[in-house]
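ARCHIVE CARD
Drawer: 12
Card no.: 0347
Subject: one protein chain, sequence and derived structure
Cross-reference: see card 0346
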Amino acid sequence: MAKSKKEQLFTILKESNKPLPSSFLSAKLNVTERSIRNYVKELNHILQATIIVSSQQGYYLKNNAVRLSDITQPQHLEYSQGQRCRMILKELLFHNHFHYVKFAEKLYVSDVTIQNDIKKVVRPFLAKYPLVLKKQGSEYTLCGNEREKRNLMSNLIKEELKDFSYFYFDELNRKYDYLDLKQAIEIILTKHQLHVNSYTLQNITTHLIVSISRLENNCFISEEAKCIPARSESIQAVTKEIAEFLNDRYQIEFPPVEMDYISFVLQSKTYHAVNTCGKIFDIHEYIESRYIHICNEIVNKLKAYYHIEFDRNSLIRFTFHIKALANRSSLNQYISNPHTKITRATNPFLFEIGVFISDILKEHDILLNDDEIAFLAFHIGAFYDASPEKRKPLHILVMLPKYINSIERFQEKTQELTTLADFIYMDVHPLPQAGYDLIISCDHIDTDIPIFYISPLITDFELASLKDMIHDISKRKNNAIFTKNDVPIGLFKKNYYAFKDYKALIKNLVDELSQLHYVDEAFFKDVIEREKLSSTAFVEGIALPHSLQMNARQNCFSIVINETPIDWNGSDVYIIILIAFSNENRLMFRDFVDSLINKLYESRDNIISMQRINSYEEFIRWIENEE
């Protein structure tokens, strides 16, 4: 293995019987003289003593007994570009300035490396907030709106709390005791009857420790209070108590504008815990008419498009959530959701409903990120799974003789199966009509419908076999996506690499469907608008582009399966399924997406088998579990 530059430096010095000047060493190793100084500093640090000495004549080893093996395990970390950029941001946010030369020396990298990090990563990242860096000599200063600096700092902490990395969080936690502060804030909020869940409480606490840290560094919000929405008297009272608590604990004074900002955060992340169980509850006492109208629009569209209905309590909770969400959106203060990725992957239909709602809110200038969309999915999922419409019951014809108590005995033994099936009893044997999923009979019947034969007095063995059969039929019926007459038309391509850009690929696939008159000219725009709201790469490696409007003329798919991935807005995607369904088939969309995701999560082998599909017919058999 080739030696590193500093190992080569050590070997040269060890083999020399006289001091060597830095100019000679730099020419020998083809590096700068500053790099030589950095190598010497690092080697002495590794050896925990001044082994390499600098003199007027040059560098030499003070102790020639030191071996190369003593330095081959460096005690400093070598940082990736991402890690270096995180460290740069930390310096800027905690100290508001950054000396790149000293930083480079500290990390044993060149000045050029750090400046490239700033140019290629740090500046573009800061521009999203928007914040800028100003350079004077060897020092950078972070410039911009103080609220945005805090927003950036809070978002960085929220992101690392999701993956437990704690790079920015550790320093603040050691100084301010995050968990203890969170508990104290929860007590104050509860005292004032403000409802807060674990996610919002974490976000409020994060905001407060960021504010305390910035105020200790004399970084104040100077914007006029008119930028902040009006607050209720109760919110002002809570704000005052929290500010007094923080002042007492951390000796931090909160100016009026800072108090306004805390009030806004509380208003956007909490709502009053009200009792809705009484006979009289007027939501207008708590929620402005604007938000009630928006919620009514959402509820009506969910009922019309997805057959989803809210009960009274769910609607009240949802309306409070929308009001708080609108407040957060107005100042770009979103709640961090650690379960967004898994929600998108395991509950894509519920996430899709969240996207659908976000599209309605967008028309009212309420913009959401993926974390907030996932919270909307939580709200819908809290009551949607209980909807009786979701499970399709079996229709079972039971043909038993009315002899003694055979029917009563059968009913008693099959009571637990009534949640899966409707049993229709007959004691004569005309040819059964179509529409039954199963026939149970004591006598032979000539029919194409599945039949299960039992004795007049059903035995335990027969009962066990019948239960297995009913569960199997129920599973297949509820997992079935398409009937024989409604299988969508499909186009299929294998290893199709004509387009490197995912939008260009979508355009190509849509154009093909448009030429066949399956979709209209506006379909491409609708698909891209849906993609802008949130990526349709629900599962790793698979994208499901589609339109929220569900306005296709013909139900159809256009499928691409590749061995080499395409960059799908930051994700590597191998399988693309462009979905075009009509509005009447929104529930078919749900069944297809749920079935696809469940199948992929059921086994890693299913993902591999999907990549081996070579035709549209194979795909339909695969998704319907016929292969």
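Annotation on reverse: The first strand starts at residue 52 and ends at 54. Residues 124 and 339 are 27 Å apart (CA to CA).
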